[in-house]
Design a protein that fits this description.
single chain, 188 residues, mainly alpha, 10 helices, 0% strand, globular
Length: 188
């Protein structure tokens, strides 16, 4: 793993702290590789730990939003921001979680053509509005989510996931984070 995961010359700490090495070993065991986003942050353990704590909380912790829905939000936001890394990585997750190899691409290209439920479409509409013009969001936009069955907590989780990926997309694009080639063939 000598290739840098970004355009920046920020080498991964070597050796990694034991708990970080265990985490990376679990990635290899489950995915077959360490995602480049983790490698990109591995020059600074505080930054890596903050990133992974927030990611794991937003994407994996219990929520009224399913894991698939959260990944769909990641792809819709990343499409709006044209973030290559996140489109590739989270598009693969949408394919895997949905069992539909076309769904990740549909959401990446134009989620409006994807076969989504009304709830999912409302969620992605909100996430894209948040990405484009968060200051324009009104009570009517939140009410549209409630009308689709989202709770107050679900709306908070949706906004948090969209906000996290807006930040992540901007960092990934700014430092030319490269997606792991392995993602391209997953769940096809």
């Amino acid at each position: 793993m000598t290739e840098q995961p970004t355009a920046l010359d920020l080498p991964q700490l070597d050796p990694l702290p034991p708990e970080t090495q265990r985490y990376f070993d679990i990635c290899v065991e489950k995915l077959g590789f360490v995602p480049n986003v983790l490698r990109a942050y591995a020059f600074d353990m505080d930054k890596l730990n903050a990133f992974t704590a927030m990611y794991n909380d937003l994407m994996l912790a219990p929520s009224g939003l399913s894991k698939l829905e959260r990944e769909m939000v990641a792809v819709a936001v990343s499409a709006e921001n044209r973030c290559f890394y996140c489109l590739v990585a989270h598009g693969a997750a949408v394919r895997a979680l949905s069992g539909d190899p076309a769904l990740g691409e549909m959401i990446a290209m134009n989620y409006r053509v994807a076969p989504l439920t009304d709830r999912q479409r409302a969620m992605l509409d909100f996430a894209v509005l948040m990405t484009k013009a968060s200051a324009t969001i009104t009570e009517a936009d939140r009410q549209a989510l409630r009308d689709q069955g989202l709770s107050e907590r679900d709306i908070f989780d949706l906004a948090s996931v969209a906000g996290f990926f807006n930040m992540s997309n901007r960092v990934a694009s700014a430092i030319a984070m490269a997606p792991n080639p392995d993602y391209h063939g997953q769940a096809r």
